[in-house]
Amino acid sequence: MVESEAGVRLLVVTFEGTYGHGCQGNGDAAAMLEAVERLVREHPEAEGAVLDATRLDYEWGDRIGSVSEPLAAMPWAWAVSERSAGRCGLTSYVEAEMGMRPGWPPHNVVQAARVT
Q1: CA distance linking residue 108 with residue 114, whole number of Å
Q2: What's the rounded Cα separation, in Å, for the pair 100 and 7?
Q3: In what order do the strands lie in the sheet with 9-18?
Q4: What is the maximal distance between C-alpha atoms in the chain?
Q5: Is 75 left (phi over 0), alpha (psi -120 to 50) or beta?
């Protein structure tokens, strides 16, 4: 849990390593989802969240979309880097499948949490 300069309490969940390609990533997605669920339970005071994939090697796999399910009640965003964003990486998945725009820093999450 971090507090932004604006005083917004953000849950930052950082993922590292290599996400399995295609269905090989299903177990990775399940572990990531479990971690997010646990952290949401442990920090009910969170006003927003960032799924930090800046150190995650990701190419393809739809199950990664399930990782954000526990965050439905709050503003949240994916943070990506060149490592996770590749040509067929997380940026294209988030934009095409989730209709979102990933970025860093997550100003939109802080703004949304302040307004909510």
Answers
A1: 10
A2: 24
A3: 2-3, 9-18, 48-57, 76-79
A4: 40
A5: beta
pLDDT tens track for 24-61: 888 999 999 999 999 999 999 999 998 888 888 887 77
Cα–Cα distance for residue pair 104/25, rounded to 1 Å: 24
What are the angstrom distances between the C-alpha of 83 and each of 29, 55, 107? 17, 7, 21
**Which residue matches tokens 């339970």?**
41
Spell out the SS3 assignment of 85-108: HCCCCHHHHHHHHHCCCCCCCCHH
In this predicted model, what pLDDT tens digit does every residue of 69-110 receive, in sequence order? 999 999 888 887 766 655 556 666 666 566 666 554 444 444
57 residue type, one letter: D
Name the CA radius of gyration of the chain, rounded: 13
Other CB atoms within 10 Å distance of the CB of residue 38 = 12
Sign of CA dihedral 5, 57, 78, 26: negative
